[in-house]
Amino acid sequence: MSNKVILGCFFIAVSAFLYASKHMTAAMMVMNLNSTEANYFDGGYSSISTGISFWTGLSLLMGITLLLLDWFPAIKGFLKQIKQPKNKTSH
């Protein structure tokens, strides 16, 4: 595997960790507030600023970009092969 693939997978893993962290943070914030009459998770979730969502999205975008940059030559060659198949000659 090339360094771009490893780095791309790392950024995708960081994105998944940040996504889970946002939900865990909201759950911990309202852990003692929830009751049978009301659920405050939505309020706790919305009170977390958009900063973690920004970094989650940016990390995911970087990971996908790095993977595509590494795989682009192979995909381009495959598409070219599909468009122009080799002619088979019959004897």
TrEMBL record:
<feature type="transmembrane region" description="Helical">
    <location>
        <begin position="54"/>
        <end position="79"/>
    </location>
</feature>
<keyword id="KW-0812">Transmembrane</keyword>
<keyword id="KW-0472">Membrane</keyword>
<protein>
    <submittedName>
        <fullName>Uncharacterized protein</fullName>
    </submittedName>
</protein>
<keyword id="KW-1133">Transmembrane helix</keyword>
